[in-house]
Queue: 4 jobs
Job 1
Amino acid sequence: MKSAKYVFLFIGDGMSIPQRMMTDEYLQRTEKRGLLINQLECQGLTRTSAANAFITDSAASGTAIACGEKTNNGRIGMDASGKNKLVSSAEVARDNGRKVGIVTSVTINHATPAAFYGHNVSRGNYYQLGLDLIASGFDYFGGGGIAQANKEDDPLYKGDIYELAKEAGYTVSRNREGFQKINKDSGKVLSFGAADALPYAIDMSEDDLCLADFTRQAIEVIDNPEGFFLMVEGGKIDWGCHANDAATTLKEVIDFDNAVKVAYDFYEKNPEDTLIVVTGDHETGGLTLGFAGTGYRTQIETLGAQKYSGGVMANKIKEQKAESLEELKPLINEMTGMVFAVDGEYKKGGLNLSKVDEQKLQDIFDKNQKDGKFTGHSALSKALVLMLNNKSTVAWTTGAHTALPVSTSAQGVNAQLFSNMLDNTDISKGIKQVVQK
Ligand SMILES: [Zn+2]
């Protein structure tokens, strides 16, 4: 087996076939291009189940993808018994003299990234996973910050994780100014764009750092003659799907694809030495392309009319302090592209709201009143997102994960290891082989 000097593993959290196809079709219709990840040379399917459940969580699937063994939902880098530590592909890479980088758009000690350096019976022990992060000695951690970094009541509390990281020799940056100072001579690095998760791509401003920025910086820091292993997680694809928010989800998938593009550019310069693997850890939301109310017609491109994530829309509705639905109509139109009837004339198709739609919104407005004030901004935002999704011919079945398999794609050295129908543990087994000396 030929090893690959430079190994990239991209994990779209909650990204399965529907998320990829929805985004691909959206890009085909709006930009006449598809997702890069759907064009890589090897394409296969991957089963995602946990040791104790057909529907996995991100801890068990992250552990399977990182360590090559099925475990129970909730466990990080530990076997199903909860007694034995497992070894991740990132640790194998480190022990073979490579530099290692871990990047995510959610907090760096969240389940998926933690599965590559952490060992804990519970994904909820964020502080302890933060200690594991430092103990790993990996070379680069970037993206979202450390959750519960200073949890003083943790039984293993030793001090603030950021401070402990500095004591361990890490250069620590927690904002854009710090980000710009980091380069290949910075030594080991923690580089975060937010205290918690990064903003959703759909809500980002010019000043926000995105997944591609951290991927680029990680490569700069860990590129060296002995080779590297870099794991990049698009963690908020999952969050968009938990919220059943298709527009937010597809912008996250595009953001993720842009990060893969950074690795692909690197691959094109080093095609004989590079492997890129792209997978998902499970499906989230039971997303489907097609809706009972719209038959065989599809209109995925109109998801582009949504300007913000559901959460930001709820805040904007709240700020308006509206006393009637009427007052909110211009804002709703601006945020979603959906069109209210004029003079009681309800138009059909497109993003026109029907009489039934409008009555639903009116009911939410009327039912969520306290002391003469509208308090249902979240419920209204959720209803608007759902209406826009269904008009755009996509639908959801759950706010949780599902047992659908995911797509796995690969390009470069030994990419064929990742074709065909795999188990998620096979991803780890393949990567552990190619990160040998
Ligand atoms: Zn999830």
Job 2
Amino acid sequence: MRAIRVAAFGGIENLTLESNYPLPAVGKKEVLIKVSAAGVNPVETYIRSGMFALLPELPYTPGSDAAGVVQEVGSEVTRFKKGDRVCTVRTLTGSYAEYTTAEDKFVVHLSDKLSFAQGAAIGIPYYTAVKALQIRAKARSGERCLIHGASGAVGIAAIQFAKAMGLHVIGTAGTKEGMALVKNTGADLVFNHREDGYVKAIQDAIGGVDIILEMASHVNLQRDLDLVNTRGRVVVIGCRGNIEINPTSTMAKESCIMGVNLMEVTDEDFHEMHHVIRTGMEVGWLDPKVSKVYPLGEAKTAQHDVINNQGTTGKLVLDTTK
Ligand SMILES: NC(=O)c1ccc[n+]([C@@H]2O[C@H](COP(=O)([O-])OP(=O)(O)OC[C@H]3O[C@@H](n4cnc5c(N)ncnc54)[C@H](OP(=O)(O)O)[C@@H]3O)[C@@H](O)[C@H]2O)c1
């Protein structure tokens, strides 16, 4: 099969396409998926560069999010059969490939309403949104939620889930196109995080917010602490550097800064998150926005774009059939 392989940690030049890589073997509780599309996430660039807490053994195939069709199931798998449309948030052998394996507990059926590219956009973004809002922030219907960086993959997922939970959603993006996407995805109010004075504009429009999902905490954390309401929660999802904050801001309002980490998930968390994802597909609120699809051989460009993009409009995906 064709697969992207990484033999050494470093730059994007270390992503190489192999055309005769062997098919992975399937364990008892595993599913072999013929991958149609793989999600491209920022974390895969951190791992490839060797700058991540958990690194795979070299060489490896990148990627955790995939959508495709079940090719084979292990002897103890009962929920899936050959031919089922599925997607997964965690593979054993990497998703930037024509075939991948996943433990059956990390696989869900993919609704016929969604394309494979959309299925590949579910994994990390939607599970993170669900973990952040429901499991970490314990969001309640009627609360005001700022999604700081709403035009990207996690942001779009968070808008859809937050609206399904009955929250009032304020989203930000850095361009007109991103703002239009955020609005069309369901945000009640949209602001441009590259415009001077946008935080004041949010305050003028609605006062404060109860929850902030933060995609760029290295830029925004102090602003978030200024904006969040008494006993509000700032959920750190994205962080690419250090920032100085004044902790007094948290005392005055008894506000809380909490991290979210999709690598740190219990079986109970997964059970809860799968339930939300399945329901989202059935009810229809889960509707990933794919911005660009790259052939598998262009994984280098896709990883370059996912980390350097300014003016994000949804999810980047690899088409593993091309
Ligand atoms: N903690 C976890 O478990 C976890 C899980 C998933 C993702 N993440 C992290 O979360 C972040 C978002 O992931 P993603 O997949 O959604 O990435 P993405 O698709 O590239 O989206 C990035 C988002 O951040 C926005 N942004 C850029 N500069 C900003 C600023 N100064 N203030 C507010 N927003 C800004 C972008 O908007 P414009 O491009 O329009 O400016 C875009 O909406 C990444 O850093 C990723 O590594 C963490």
Job 3
Amino acid sequence: MAEPIIETSHLTKSFKGFKAVDDISLRVEAESIHALIGANGAGKTTCFNLLTKFLRPSDGTIHFKGRDITSLKPDRVARLGMVRSFQISAVFGQLTVLENVKLALQRHRGESYDFWSSVRRLDHLRGRAMELLADVGLTDAADTPAAELPYGRKRALELATTLALDPEVMLLDEPMAGMGTEDVGRIADLIRSVSRGRTVLMVEHNLGVVAELCDRITVLARGGVLVEGDYATVSRDERVIESYIGGAQHA
Ligand SMILES: Nc1ncnc2c1ncn2[C@@H]1O[C@H](COP(=O)(O)OP(=O)(O)OP(=O)(O)O)[C@@H](O)[C@H]1O
Ligand SMILES: [Mg+2]
């Protein structure tokens, strides 16, 4: 088996005795698209928060690229190359789409800046920013204030600002949430194209999207790993059918 880019061992998070994540040993292969699925409350978001160090584990370890990151701070982990989409995707509504991407690029390069005066001084980043906008299909919206974008295109902008950081691993928590069918297809294509040469770990409730996009799927239930495998394996597992559909009814 190839060396995993993310590996957790016995990862556990308790909230006052309640184990939201319970003894999860997860391996994510480099350059794969890996899904975390499971009913509401299964522990998916908590798992993301542990990986990006927004939460401190109660037990267990996390390795990233062979290095123990269990006690690192969130910004260190982001700088090592594991980035969660909302982490940097605080999109500024009053700035244009292009300005938002230029700002994200500038922050990535660690150039010092004074927010308002510098927005106009980012012309040297225009070329790269326009490439990123082309990657996510937003070339025509470059000069539109971000607040005026329809929902699906705002998510595309979020992806562009995430890509501006050039992360090795992107964590996407329900990237399709709240989208209509048309947008779902577009964002799925987008995720596939931006995943080239990167690793994507995503939480997604839309099983059609998971089936189409993901190389590997880990199904969580009550904080633990229920089943892991490719879509064919996971989707015919009785426990998954029961737990997932049973849980979804409470959504
Ligand atoms: N900060 C917290 N304090 C106490 N309990 C928490 C906290 N965060 C999460 N939980 C609990 O941990 C469990 C797992 O929550 P989590 O948000 O990880 O689920 P999820 O799989 O992302 O669910 P969803 O599909 O609804 O997003 C839930 O029972 C939740 O109520
Ligand atoms: Mg969640």
Job 4
Amino acid sequence: MPGIELCRNVAVPGSMLIIGTSGLIGSCLYEALKGDHQVTGTFFSCPQKGLIKLDMTERNQVRQLMEELVPGVVFIPAAMPNVEACEENPGLCYQVNVEGVGYVLEAAAGVGAKIVYFSTDYVFDGAAGPYGEDEPPNPISVYGRAKYAVERRVQQSRSPWLIIRTTVVYGPEQQGKNFVLGLIRRVKQGAVVKVPRDQVGTPTYAPNLCRVVKELVELGEEGIYHVAGPDLLDRYQFALEAAQIFDLDQNLIVPVTTAELGQKAPRPLAAGLKVDKVRARVTTPLTGVREGLREMKRALQQ
Ligand SMILES: NC(=O)c1ccc[n+]([C@@H]2O[C@H](COP(=O)([O-])OP(=O)(O)OC[C@H]3O[C@@H](n4cnc5c(N)ncnc54)[C@H](OP(=O)(O)O)[C@@H]3O)[C@@H](O)[C@H]2O)c1
């Protein structure tokens, strides 16, 4: 009966699905949302209690999950976000970051769910950051081009959509991959860590990012929002701030240029994101670098 078919596909307000809950941003989102919303999360290769396994490059798996849950909002932090790995394997990068996410967009539109897609300041070329929402993207890496390709697909979706661009995200994380956790681990092992002094950005504390995103979603916002920390600094300065808060030996942190690092993927150097638009919309204050690092230290000690 047409009536029954219609009911089945009505998105339930408040029911939320996070694709990629086992990652840094996904896990913080889950924490931010779970008290007030009914949330389901997925993992891909790192099983975690309570999460459902999903490979978003498998179109049928994605469609089945979406039709089973019929969420009102689908958050998509899931990605292959390793910029070097994307440059080395553009085929896999495209399969995960563009095709896989494309299946999620298609299935979300099929059940009328709102899409919240996580993107990056790597959609810009880094010639003149920090960037506002209205400035034209011009990605310079395989990863950046994949993220921008998806942004354009999201904007053509039949579903309501919100694109969150963020950058240099740090915080407590089970998989320990982010810049600050990597720095702490390596310096504590006595390794010399070379850090670029010419990559400028706006580091973003993950739990703060997710509280802001929650507020935007609850306000029913759509469109593109830049959500990042308020402080503009280069990666070496950021590493020194982290060293101070986490009592690391600063002598082991060595400033270099990006060219000296010999990385495969070109990096946007003058990057970072302007946050005037989000500040004007939400009441949650944006967390600065020192405050974020201190909060992270407290969270890791618990
Ligand atoms: N971290 C940053 O500094 C930063 C900056 C700007 C933008 N972003 C964007 O923010 C998003 C989240 O970043 P993040 O740092 O949270 O990444 P992350 O920690 O690497 O998490 C990625 C998530 O995607 C999942 N995933 C990977 N392949 C998948 C697949 N084939 N099917 C389904 N799920 C899959 C992972 O699952 P498993 O771990 O279980 O394999 C994980 O849950 C990304 O889109 C990234 O582009 C991040």
